[in-house]
Amino acid sequence: MQRSFLQRFSIVGLYLWGFRISVLLIVVWGSFGTFQAGCPSVFTLCAFKSRYSADVWLDLLVYGLSQGSVYALIALGYTMVYGILRMINFAHGDVFMAGAYTAYYLAAAFGRAGFLNRHPLLSLAAVLALAMITAMSIALVLERVAYRPLRRAPRLIPLISAIGASFFIEYAFRGFFGSGFQAYPEWQIFKGEWAIAGVGILRTQAVVIVAAVALMVVLYGFVMRTKTGTAMRAVSEDLEVASLMGIDVDRVIVITFGIGGAAAGAAGVLYALVFKQVHFFMGFFPGIKAFTAAVLGGIGNIPGAMLGGVFLGIFESMGPILILEGLRVPGIYPGGIPAPYQLKDVIAFTMLVMVLIFRPSGILGERLATKKA
Amino acid sequence: MGILASQQLTKRFGGLIALSELDLDVAERSIHSIIGPNGAGKTTYFNCVTGFYRAEEGRTFFNGQPIDTLTPDKITQLGIARTYQNIRLFANMTCLENILVGMHPHLKSSWMGAILRTPATRQDEAQAHEEAIRLLQFVGQRGKGDYLARNLPYGEQRRLEVARALASRPKLLLLDEPTAGMNPRESMDTMAFIRRLRDELGITILLIEHNMRVVMGISEIITVLDFGQKIAEGTPDQVRNDPRVIEAYLGTRRGVAGVGA
Amino acid sequence: MRSDRGSWGRVISGGLIFGAAAVFVSLVGMVEALGVRVIVIGVIDFGRLLLLLIGLGAGYQAARRGGGGVVIALLRGLLAGAATGAGLAALLVLGSEVNLRGMFINASPALFEIISFGRGAAGVPLVVAAGAVVGVLGAAATLLPGTVRGPLGAGVTATIVIGLFQELLQIILQGEEGVRAAIRQLIFVPEGLPPRGALEVFVVVLVASALWRSRRPVVRGWISKRPPRTQRLLRLLGLLLAVAVVLVLPAAGGLFVSQVLVLVGLYTLMGLGLNLEVGFAGLLDLGFVAFFAIGAYTVGLLTSTGQYGVAHWSFWAAVPVALVVSLIAGFLFGLPILRIRGDYLAIATLGFGEIIRLLALSDALRPWFGGSQGILAVPKPNIGGFEFSGPMQIFYITLVSSAFIAFVAARLRDSRLGRAWMAMREDEDVAEAMGINLINVKLLAYGIGGAFAGMGGAIFAALLGSIFPHSFNLLISINVLALIIVGGMGSLPGVVVGSLFLVGLPELLREFSDFRFLVYGAALIIMMQVKPAGLWPAAAVRRELLKEEPVGAVTEGPVAERAEA
């Protein structure tokens, strides 16, 4: 609601402005530095001629898009659950991991049998299906065991339960399958590049983007067009009223967790296609980032989550080079920040913190944010 | 100008106008009621006065000092305290602690003092405890200091909330439906209690109430709100017979006295 | 009778859930890994005990729900136990038909050996039968009167605990002759606890417990009849005894025990800090480890004699600076997130904590903080020539600082500031309407909580003699959160209890530490539903729990509704 104990000019306000301005300065200074690197004069920008050609930027963009569409798929689960239960499903990232990890065994078996390359699309569909089913079942068990008994409890209680669930799932998988990385098998036909409109694009990334977009379209259609989807939207609008209208709220919540879980499972496989390995802890960071994406798009807002995911993915892939490498500080970093890719996650987390501080209602602005307070 | 005065106060929520150019003047040591149908803007007005909402237009003065730019804690420190329509006690704290929190503004001990337990801190705390126990007695809850607030019966929770408000030594007390959920007998007790607050402690009372028997019985001045606007103001008799009030409440013939209870 | 059949169905499905739990602990590797720790030689090890407990639990819960006579209850236990056994048997059959190991790395022959009593697939009937027997035992436990069950339980528990820690106890009781050696030789053989020793322990504890049960009222009565001065003296004596025991612990337990105790102490320090933020002020902070890191890096940079040292100060001069730096860090960290509430706050703090770790790890800040190689050559503290060279000595620094910090926390809790924190935890808006300046109060919570953790970090730096950014990951924050929740949010003794259970135990049972986060996760989920007030609830809550039925609870709060359940 109209909370405003910090709205006026104060030390706190000054501090926050300082924070904003310094981040802005770093971004502007850094990107300017990158764009004019190697240029004859300080006042000319010649990004595409200097250290990085247009191709590099395009590669980064496509990579960011594929990352972002994975984030978007995960973010759907966060945003739908938050929309209905007003709780952060902290274990959602681990549902994502669980799907990818379990499907790994099917993919590996296909790989050994040679099925993978004989029927690439069929095998991909089967792997995706298995991942979605496992992830969905885990999400459902999670809801039943860790969240449902706490539905009427004060807000911190289910969050703590969710944190517990997150670690339980991670370490259960570690116990089952070991603590090492497992190499995801590769589909031969997804190796190399496709030339699309004269531009070479890595095939895996194209597949990821296409599959993620297709899944999101299906999901969005489900939520907007079907009767169950309408019920979901009604419950997220107002749980009590919806239940008075004869909607079975329990069922809607179960379906929400199921759909969110399935999307996360599929995202897990797509993520593994790009990074070619799975690990019990792999869900944690994508989970947090997808949550950032969900907040960015206005939590509870499904198209917002998709947009937020894509935005975050692109920002994260371009950010280190764009901002940090050009951040030349005389005397300390004459050549820009060393090893900028180490700070990729710092960029994502800074974005998370800044969104939570300055724009908790998301970039699209969402009615839920006002209801929440 | 009285102890509390609002001039041309306007508060909007998006497109909805909750308060519209409201003028309100509360005389010192009076018992002043605000009535009106649901959604008339009564609680919104309380929220604006206590700094919880910020009005878009207009000003509010307390003892002649403008308060509409202050934060809620500063406003409380000036001497305005309130209770809530849906009781909002600190549920997991004891009754005594609830009252001690109410005393927060006029206790002085700092955190360093608390760690070192300086003589000044100790004296401050001892006095606060004494006063808190007196306040508990005043609202008829002697010996309940150790109970968690959430375990008190409903009526006692209401009274504890008043005690907590009194703990800040207010000059003006805002009561939001103090008799909600009470039976007629308890309502009468509460009325007597409110009068005692004014007569014995000299506190100005501004209250929101739906129970017309209480409102008519206790108020010296009544302000009637409808859709955020003041539609009438006056003594109980004047308000009771005001055609606009009757219309706002019923749109028909019955008198205001028949509403509520 | 339909309802009756339904209830039998529930017994079986309940048993199957326990069976699933048994399969889970087997496949996750606990049974085999913990099997290394023998409790009673030739009788039982930790892994088998786990399965046994699950079977007992199945019988116990089946017998407890629903009425019926003794026979019916035992029958329920039998059925539930058999169902549990059937779950394991199914794993056995599956394991002998398919090579599960391609997927589940713990589905090893050794595991199946344990489950099947060495008989392979032929052991299936035996497993089910064993499950049934154990189930009946579990059911029988519900039927015993308290006077029997209490001492029996005490005897069994004592035997298990002594068996689990036999190695440690043997070290404590080492020596050639004297009382300690005599006790050791009476109970133990060099390899562990033999059945004879187990029986001795069991009988002694059983008898002692039964005696205590019958004599307790007499002793209590005797004490309460003494004059108050004597009572106070007795209490003081008890306290002194406890302090004395704690003081000699490192010397008695040796290096390993001291190391564990120091860790417990460090986690207690962090727990006290986080408890102040979460338990008192209701601010869920998942980036808490950042303060620990800040304390450690401050001491490291100020004292290190290595490459990154800037001042070569002594430990004692650096500690106050570390406290102040982490206090200020708390303010700065708190300022931007003042407006964020509830679960968003948890995520924002998590983000902050990770940012700090990643920065410390990065090459960008390497010239100052040493990057991933960290800071080396942090000297040990010393006073007038006495060097706190290892855990056995540093233990005392930890002990003194924990005691001091706990004292400070207790004073703050009972002060005006403490009440303001709690009011804010209960209802932020109303707290502000009570005249509390939320900004000040929140910043103080972050600052003081951070300073407590900074103290822990300072000692940590001296303990290890080096600092690596890898030590400051999110798992530490989760660890601290778990321990204050298990101990009881807002409760100071709870912090100690929590860190003993969640840090001390897994360290002492090394085989167990692989599974600690698994167990923490489960503990958080279960605690939230069963005992949200924790093992040692805060005083006010505890008083309430002891009272009879609450009259009519209306409002809610963090612990409110759950505590009544």
Rg from alpha-carbon coordinates of chain B = 19 Å
Number of helices of chain B: 10
| Sequence stretches where pLDDT stays below 50 over 5 or more residues of chain B | 252-261
Estimate the strand proportion of chain C.
under 5%
Number of strands of chain B: 10
Structural class of chain B: alpha/beta
* Principal-axes shape call of chain C: globular
Average pLDDT number of chain C: 86
The biggest beta sheet of chain C, please? Answer: 2 strands, antiparallel
Number of domains of chain B: 2
Uncertain spans of chain C, ≥5 residues at pLDDT below 50? 548-565
The shape of chain B, in one word, is: globular
Instruction: Give helix and strand order of chain B, one letter per element, not per position.
Output: EEEHEEHEHHHHEHEHEEHH
Helical residue percent band of chain C: over 70%
CATH-defined superfamily of the largest domain in chain B: P-loop containing nucleotide triphosphate hydrolases
| Ends apart, CA distance between termini of chain B | 33 Å
Tell me the β content of chain B. 15-25%
Strand order of the largest sheet of chain C: 1-2
Looking across the biggest beta sheet of chain B, what order are the strands in? 6-7-8-3-9-10
